[in-house]
Amino acid sequence: xxxxxxxxxxxxxxxxxxxxxxxxxxxxxxxxxxxxxxxxxxxxxxxxxxxxxxxxxxxxxxxxxxxxxxxxxxxxxxxxxxxxxxxxxxxxxxxxxxxxxxxxxxxxxxxxxxxxxxxxxxxxxxxxxxxxxxxxxxxxxxxxxxxxxxxxxxxxxxxxxxxxxxxxxxxxxxxxxxxxxxxxxxxxxxxxxxxxxxxxxxxxxxxxxxxxxxxxxxxxxxxxxxxxxxxxxxxxxxxxxxxxxxxxxxxxxxxxxxxxxxxxxxxxxxxxxxxxxx
Length: 278
Prior knowledge:
- By secondary structure, this protein is α/β, with parallel strands linked by helices.
- The chain contains 10 helices and 10 strands.
- Strands 1-2-3-9 form a 4-stranded parallel β-sheet, with helices on both faces.
- Strand 4 (106-109), helix 5 (115-127) and strand 5 form a beta-alpha-beta unit.
- It is elongated and about 65 Å long.
- The N and C termini lie far apart (67 Å).
C-alpha cells in the first residue's frame, strides 16, 4: 500500500470502518467501473483521487443522490467535498523558485489530467513575462519510463530548457535518469523540481527540490469529512473544500543557470584584484 492508502486505512480503522481499495490504472473508464464495483459492495462512502480532475460529473451525480464522496484533491469551485493540497499554488511556487534562480527556459512535465499544476506553472511564467513554450512542455503518464521519453523530446528542442518542473517526483526521477544516461549534470546543466516529496526523491543521487504534500494530514481531514457526511441524519450538508498547505522544499537538484554562474565566478577575481591594488 502507498503511504496515502496506509494513512487512510489507519484513520478509518480508528473510527470503526474498514477500507476497500480499487485502482483505475490511469483510465477514466476504469475509474467509473471501480466506483460501480464499490457501490455494488454497499460501501458507506468513497474517498477518491480522480484520474481527470476536471471530469467530475459522475462523482457530482453520486453526491446529488445523497451519497458521501470526498475528493483527495484541492478542487476549487466544484459542488462536491474535497480535501487536498492546492496543486496550482504548489506548481506556481516550484516554477517561481526556478525563475528566482534566473532560469528563463523552463520546461514542464505535467499531465493534462491535472490542469491545476499546468496552470500554476504557466501563471508563474506569465507573471515573470516569460511566454510559455509548448515545445518544452509534455504531458506523460505518471511513470518514470514516460518521463524519460518525454524529457528526451524536450531536450531535443531547438532551444532546450535549463530547468524542468515535473508534476510529480516520479516524473522528476525520470528526468534525473535521462540526465544521468545522457551525461547532463544536475543541477550543473539542468535544474529539476518535482512535486510530492516522496522518499525516492529525498534519497535520490541528487536529492530533489519538490513541493511537500502532507499525506497524513490530508488523510486525517478527508476521513473526518467523509465520516461527517456518512453520519449526516438526512440530506448531506453543503460541500466544502479544505486545502492542506504544501511546502516548497529546496534541495540539491536546483541552482542558478550554468552561464550565469560561470560569469559570476569570472567576475570575482577581477573585483578582488581591484580592491587589493587600490
